[in-house]
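pinging the channel bc i need a second pair of eyes. not urgent but kinda urgent?? the chain im working w is below, pasted from the shared doc
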Amino acid sequence: MATAAAVQPVCITTTALAEQLGTRSDKLMALARRAEDPLPVRYLKGKTRYGFVVVPELMEWLERNSEVRSDW
């Protein structure tokens, strides 16, 4: 019997991302507006609310903008 592979999400909304990261959406939008290495928030054409981030782009951005800490 074959097992079904888990479906990976293609994108995540900024609201859901803020919840997962333990922050607020307005903080994410501030990261998206910064000049250097902004959070890659996208919008569908004609939409100005409810941004989303493509997961592979998010993973690359997180690697550049977070750190692994072991000194807690």
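so Residues 11-65 form one domain. and Residues 29 and 35 are 12 Å apart (CA to CA). — does that match what u expected or am i reading it wrong
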